[in-house]
Amino acid sequence: MAGYFAVSFSFGILAMQGGLSVIQAALTSLTNMTSSGQFAGLQIIAAGGTLIELILTQVIINMRYSLMSLALSPKLDKKIKPWQRLLIAFANTDEIFAVAMSRERSLTFMYMAGLQILPIFGWTAGTAIGAIAGNLLPAALTAALGIALYGMFIAVVVPVARRSRPVLLSALIAIAISCVLYILKVSAGISIIVSTVAASALMAFLRPIEGGVEE
Amino acid sequence: MAVYRSNGFGDLSHQSLTPHNFSGKIKNKWLRSFLYYVPYACLSAMTFPAIFFATQSVWSAVAGVAIALLLAFFNRSLITVAAGACLTVLVVEQLMPLF
Question: Are A155 and B78 within 8 A, CB to CB?
Fold first, then answer.
């Protein structure tokens, strides 16, 4: 909960800097529920990118959720109706998925709803408060807070990259491509897509992940 | 679409972002590996070089990145890393006019 709030708070600050209103930022969070997806989307909107770029980026970044849902599906209670399944899939996050999969009994709709409501609320409220704070706080402070979400991205990648050489390599390749494309003045959306796909595809070819736990 | 086979429940790793560590297996090894790398490649590509232009000066951003990398290397939490980076940027930007 605190984690969701902190990430979405930083997203709210950045959304405000990117020219979104408080309502726009909060609605983005409520309807998307995807941190990296929303952030990539924000970069594209702020840079005045195209709709195609936006759609492509979202499909690639959020592809992993369709696979999580596939894995989650057999664990759901048989009585859950299709529209309830859709709601569960919509509000799925990396953390919710982890908790749900670690539960040994089959998952009822009430259990999933209980698991998912607080994150949805925290995520949306955090964004709204971040955007409001972004408008109220002095410029020096919001400028410093602009680096917060990037700091969290670093906090996610670095500990894994430290343990796993292939992950480190995929990150470095993605950064290298992204920097080159930036110098070539390629738009943010295309750059994120190309860097992500190229680095992941190359590493999947060079160092495929074996079944089970990595390493 | 890849065939998905659930094995019930997997280990609960807090650091990993992709499904294969938790449960279920996509049979195509390349696709499974590709999806495993996507979050890390994507977060990295979004962070660099954009992070260097997220603050009022490139130098304060460089200092913030250095502190964030250091804190993250020693497995500090999301919030600690972010706060450390912000604080560094704030301090550096306040000090810069003095030089």
Answer: yes
Q: What ipTM does the predicted assembly reach?
A: 0.76
Cα dihedral sign, A78-A82-A84-A89:
positive
Query: pTM value?
Result: 0.76
Q: Which of A2, A74, A156 sits opposite B43 (nearest CB)?
A: A156
**Are the Cβ atoms of A172 and B44 closer than 8 angstroms?**
yes
CA pair distance A81, A88, nearest whole angstrom? 11
Q: What distance in Å separates the CA atoms of residue A41 and residue A43, rounded to the nearest whole number?
A: 5
Residues of A numbered 166-185 whose beta carbons fall under 8 angstroms of chain B's beta carbons: which are they?
166-167, 170-175, 177-179, 182
Encoded amino acid at A157, one letter? V
Judged by a CB distance cut-off of 8 A, whether residue A161 touches chain B is yes
The closest alpha carbon to A103, from A82, A66, A72, A78, belongs to: A72
Q: Is A105 helix (H, G, I), strand (E, B) or coil?
A: coil
- State how far the Cα of A143 lies from the Cα of B87, in Å rounded to an integer: 11
Task: Encode pLDDT of B32-54 as tens digits.
Answer: 888 888 888 988 998 999 999 98
